[in-house]
Amino acid sequence: DVTRDGGFPPLNLDMIDFMGMYRQQVMRQGGQPGAAPLV
Question: H/E/C letters for each residue in the chain?
Answer without folding.
Answer: CHHHHCCCCCCCCCCCCHHHHHHHHHHHHCCCCCCCCCC
